[in-house]
Amino acid sequence: MTTTENPVRNGVDTATLFATLDAVKGNTDIAKFRYRATNRWVSGTHNRSTIHGFYGAMQEMTHQQPWTFDADHPAVLVGNDNGPTPVEYVLHALAACLTAGLANIAAARGVNLTEVESTVEGDIDLLGILGLSDRVRNGYEQIRVSFKLRGDDPEKLRRVVEQSRNRSAVFDIVTNGVPVAIEVDAG
Amino acid sequence: MTTTENPVRNGVDTATLFATLDAVKGNTDIAKFRYRATNRWVSGTHNRSTIHGFYGAMQEMTHQQPWTFDADHPAVLVGNDNGPTPVEYVLHALAACLTAGLANIAAARGVNLTEVESTVEGDIDLLGILGLSDRVRNGYEQIRVSFKLRGDDPEKLRRVVEQSRNRSAVFDIVTNGVPVAIEVDAG
User: Fold this and answer.
1) Are B43 and A10 within 8 A, CB to CB?
2) A103 touches chain B (CB under 8 A)
3) What's the sign of the alpha-carbon dihedral B17, A42, B60, B168?
């Protein structure tokens, strides 16, 4: 097997990856995860999220450190530009998910990568969120992802991207939608 | 008008907010925005996005600085935990968008906020992305947002959250989905 010949490929520990798949096959409860972010309003459109704890592999876990992320609107949208807009974080999440996936999939298939870059663009007409048109949606009208990959045979690289798209959590969330429930404690 | 009596409320410059709305009504092309993120693979599931330039208000613009964000998988998912997972960034984006919106909406309505906190949780069964079940989707099965607001009358605060949900770009993206096109340059 290629994986035993070269257990680390593209920085992916394929031996551990396959062992993890086997463990999950043996007990599917390991695969039930619950991710979490907490957010605190700072002022105006500026707010800050913390990402630290999550549930997975049948236990409560934490990342190696808490990370905080500021979001704001730019001056042109009456904010103070203390961070990216929330919709830009969605583009980052999409690029990151597809890229992590293709690195894993390439490693599992024995395909070498030397370079992966992407640009993600989203078109949004603010007439929606500004409440100035009922015919314009609030979110992006369309998103385009442009990948540049270098490594093994181009056709293999293209199939790796295709499979990453087929197995990407964020691609699924962004293209198919997820039910969101909101509860409010207003005191 | 309340807005001229108190042009800054909740840290929102309501005078500028209303002036911006008037400007957009006068020329709807101002509202056409294109956001962008670039991403570069580092190793394994670790990759890094940069957010800096965007198009809006009929011109190419930049944020006051480029921001970079690392994403990775935790050790339990065979990564090195150099950053949150991509799906956690989606939770942050949702909390940030709803929170920015409610600060703006409250200010526009003359409603004072003193505190806004939220927790966003997403349930995901990794049998989907691991390719171990065709009946499990890749993305979140459901997302729950829990807000705690303090300030003026609780009923007014609840209506502000409701309107923020109705006008949130990320809530729309996450609940309704967006078409995503992927192109690949594999050399």
Assistant:
1) yes
2) yes
3) negative
Option in B20, B89, B96 nearest A96 (CB): B89
Comparing CA positions, the residue from A67, A69, A70, A32 lying closest to residue A52 is A67
The pair of three-digit structure tokens given for residue B141, joined into one six-digit string:
């099965």
DSSP code of A79? Answer: S
Restricting to A residues 37-96, those with a Cβ less than 8 Å away from any Cβ of B are: 37-47, 49, 51, 54, 56-57, 61, 63-64, 67, 69, 71-74, 76-79, 81, 83-96
CB B100: neighbour CB atoms within 10 A?
27
How many C-alpha atoms does B182 have within 13 Å on its Cβ side?
A: 24
Take residue A27 and report the two structure tokens written for it: 């007990």
pTM, entire model: 0.96
Residue of A nearest to B89 (CA): A93
Residue showing tokens 């999409």: A94
The answer to whether the CB atoms of B115 and A86 lie below 8 A apart is no
Please provide residue A160's backbone torsions phi and psi, each rounded to the nearest 5 degrees.
-65, -45
d(CA B13, CA B15): 6
Contact status, residue A74 vs residue B67, Cβ threshold 8 Å: no
Q: Which helix (H) or strand (E) holds A149?
A: strand A142-151
Cross-chain Cβ contact A183/B42 below 8 Å:
no
pLDDT in tens, B74-107: 999 999 999 999 999 999 999 999 999 999 999 9
Residue bearing tokens 């008008």: B1
Give the separation between CA B31 and CA B56, rounded to whole angstroms: 7
pLDDT band of residue A5 (cuts 50, 70, 90) is: low
CA distance A2 to A54: 33
CA distance B184 to A106: 15
Structure tokens at A14: 């394929």
Could you tell me how far CA A34 lies from the centroid of its own chain?
A: 15
Q: Residue B151 in contact with residue B160, Cβ under 8 Å?
A: no
Share above pLDDT 90 across residues of chain A, in percent, rounded to a whole number: 95
- Rounded CA separation B81/B66 (Å): 23
C-alpha A31/C-alpha A2 separation (Å) is: 26
Which single residue is written with the structure tokens 């942050």? B92
